[in-house]
Description:
Growth Hormone, Chain: A
Amino acid sequence: MTVDTQPKGDERVHWLPMVAAISSISVVGIAIGLGMPLLSVILETRGHSASMIGLNTAVAGLASIAGAPLATPLAMRFGVAWTMIGMIAAGALAFVGFHFAPDFWMWFPLRIVLHIALTVLFILSEFWISTSAPPHRRGLVLGIYATVLSLGFAAGPWLFAHLGSSGFRPFGVIIVLVTLASIPVLAARNESPSIVADGETSNFLRYIWLVPSATAAVLVFGAVETGGFALFPIYGNRIGYSEADAALLLTMIGLGNVLLQIPIGMISDRVSDRRYLLLACATVGLAGTVFMPFFAQNWHLMAALLFVWGGVVAAMYTIGLAHLGSQLSGHELASANAAFVLCYGVGMVLGPQAIGIGMDAFGPSGFGWSLGLFFGAYMALVGVRLVRKILL
């Protein structure tokens, strides 16, 4: 595909489309941050097991896999801004649908619609902000973009802690936020970029195996983020935390993501081979799961642990993407990014299922053991590849 962007020589930051893109991504962050724990707690109060809750949450990953290839055709057909407005509306309606759906099976199509909408929103907002920012300011603008997304993730659990899971109020708050976020997208619709097909295609699946340290990193992150966010409130409840305290611990994970991404990103720019840093992040992730049970009796120690753990684990996504960019360029990088999104979706499918089954089989300790399994497997993969590099 080709993209119609701003004219060459235009070095201005187009702030209206920036606000439009950033507001839409904030909806993604808040919806996931509030929706994941909210929906899990509602299902548990209705008597569903952790594995069934994990199964329903895992559908989000399948929906993301299905939604990723839809973003470009929809944007070509309806335009970037109008597609985003449509996805905001579809996601809001699906979210409210959970409140009115009495039967468990109804939650599966609603989850599919919600996460297809969120996936398309995420892709198009990132595309919009990349094409609207001049090259010399792109780092600044994307830094703001990433920070707002992380703040959205942190704000979701904070809202959940104050709103609770009963009644329509948490769903109503989402509707208000989504409506507000759609206003700048509408205002900037005439400045949204257009996408034109150029007939080129590529088998992006082969890039999963071409740069496995990057694609496996995002798979692990997708599994840990989705499964951990969805089932941590249940884990917290089973080890004695109140609903509000468990939600605030989720907020600490989000804050770690907000505050640690820039320093870790600066470190990654100074490392010759980012796989060593990815290995270090996975090691910290594994260590955090090991120490969780020992820190669980002290909320403040647990909060400090999760702050560091959340920020370092989230860096696996950004460092993995940077590693991908250092290995490939041009059309190959575009195809590899598609594989990157696919692996994130696969992680979203595997994580909730593995953690839910682990908790049903081994009790609360199954939460940490299941997370540790993902980190351990990744450490083995990267370790083998680094050893091969040294030997060869």
